[in-house]
Amino acid sequence: MPPGEENAARVFYSGVLGIPEIPKPRNLAKRGGAWFESGSVKIHLGVEKEFCPARKAHPALLVENLAGLIEKVRSHNIDVIDGEPLEGYCRVYVSDPFGNRIELMEPYSSS
Q1: Domain contains 90
Q2: Does pTM surpass 0.85?
Q3: pLDDT in 10s for each residue of the chain, 111 residues
Q4: Fewest Cβ atoms closer than 10 Å to its Cβ: which of 32, 62, 85, 95?
Q5: Counted domains in the chain
Q6: What DSSP designation does 87 have?
Q7: Contact (Cβ atoms closer than 8 angstroms) between residue 31 and residue 61
Q8: What is the CATH number of the domain that holds 60?
């Protein structure tokens, strides 16, 4: 993430995606950035002075109620791009405030 954009990260990762922020260890906090964790999901954003967004390589997050999350994302004026078909999953792509690609996917219901 770019320097000084921690609040934008909080709005997106905690506010929109619902992943709580956790405090960074004190020795790393001085570098800036932000950490978001929930269960086995861990998103650690570091600061890069010469930041370039990851538009191809990306994390994929398994979610529940993808349709509801898509609605919430769109309500924040964030574009949602349908993913190519992947057997067993519904999936879309969004970008965080810095242009990093994030894949959101939910297994198809077996019912």
Answers
A1: yes
A2: yes
A3: 999 999 999 999 999 999 999 999 999 999 999 999 999 999 999 999 999 999 898 999 999 999 999 999 999 999 999 988 899 999 999 999 999 999 999 998 755
A4: 85
A5: 1
A6: T
A7: no
A8: 3.10.180.10
Range of the structural domain that residue 95 is part of: 6-107
Q: What CA–CA distance (Å, rounded) separates 63 from 81?
A: 16
Instruction: Name residue, tokens 């997106």.
Output: 12
Q: β-pairing, 60-62 with 81-82?
A: unpaired
Read out DSSP for 20-72?
-EEPPPHHHHTT--EEEEETTEEEEEPP-TT----SSS--EEE-S-HHHHHHH
Length reported for the chain: 111
> Domain for residue 1, yes or no?
no
Domain membership of residue 72 (yes or no) is: yes
Has residue 53 been placed in a domain? yes
